[in-house]
Amino acid sequence: MTQNGAANKGFSLPFARVALILAALVAVAAVAIAVVRSRGGGSESPPATQAAPAAGELGTVISGLEKKLAENPGDSEGWNLLGLAYYNVGRYPDAVKAYGKASTINPNNPLFWSALGEVQLLSGPGGVTPAAEASFKKALALDPKDFRARYFMAVKKNESGEHKAAVDDLIGVLRDSPADAPWQQPVRDLITRISTERKIDVAGRVPPPPAVPAASPAQVDNVVTNGIPGPTAADLKAANAMTPSEQDEMAKGMVARLAARLEDNPRDADRWIMLMRSRVMLKDQPGARNALAKAKAAFKDDSAQQARFDAAAKTLGL
Q1: Which residues contact 256 (CB under 8 A, 6 or more apart)?
Q2: Is residue 53 scored above 50 in pLDDT?
């Protein structure tokens, strides 16, 4: 199917599920920061266990995308989604090729360039490589606020011995980030580590952690949706090119992975809301109610989070 054909046929119900769950699980900057942490002069590689569970689930999706792109190699959005799929199964050199295609076809999309830079880094020997640095610089030339590119350029400065400048840039990322941005805590942790190791005074400069507001009826819809970073239009269009069975498989696989993550780390309120909403979209009301019960049990001593869960449940009809 061509790109125009995918757009003309409209969003299918399975596609809507994929779009929502993709939104819940894939945040551009969050993915970058969760996977790669600066460690002294280098960067930390993602644990192999993160990629392994996704391989079987995304195999069919990857094959379908590869087939679609063989038929329509000029679809930059399709290459972007294929790069994301390769990323999730740890095929970083293949992701470099896919994001390279996307950024060549559409060189004016900063997200393509910052995604390319990330997988170039992950494919390299460690640290921000010259190729990755060049890609991040292209992303920032197009969008100076690209959080992923800003983060990795700060990592590069730290690797190069510019520790104070790195901390300054990371503080800038925090100041510009939404209060509920999922990368807030990892960035704070990195600022703390660098400033402690290098004896850099950051007193009064780091924005305080955002308070968790109590939910009100007027905020109910936002409680459910604001915790879920949205996919780009490119991601949506490319996912719509999949067959319904491919979309369903992708959606169910991502929800299963989200649930597994929460079993390992139940103290993640935003992801519980993501799981509740994703279960509802899959018409799994019992599963959504089970997620609500587990979320409330995990935060039984936190009245603010309990209020968020209740508000989300009301919005979702639970």
Answers
A1: 57
A2: no
The answer to whether the pTM exceeds 0.70 is no
pLDDT tens by residue, 276-299: 877 877 778 899 999 999 999 999
The single residue listed with the structure tokens 């969050």 is 30
The four Cα atoms 81, 87, 88, 90 give a dihedral, to 10 degrees, of 150
Return the C-alpha torsion angle 176, 181, 182, 183, nearest 10.
0
Per CATH, 3-197 and 217-315 having the same topology is answered: yes
Which helix H or strand E contains 57, and what residues bound it? helix 48-71
Instruction: State the DSSP H helix or E strand holding residue 53, giving kind and residue range, or none if neither.
Output: helix 48-71
The Cβ of residue 148 has, within 10 Å, a number of other Cβ atoms equal to 26
Pairing type for strands 42-43 and 38-39 reads antiparallel
Q: Which residue blocks in 124-162 are alpha helix, DSSP H?
A: 130-142, 147-159
From the list 226, 155, 215, the residue with the least C-alpha distance to 191 is 155
**Radius of gyration for the alpha carbons in the chain, expressed in angstroms and rounded:** 20
Class of domain 217-315: mainly alpha
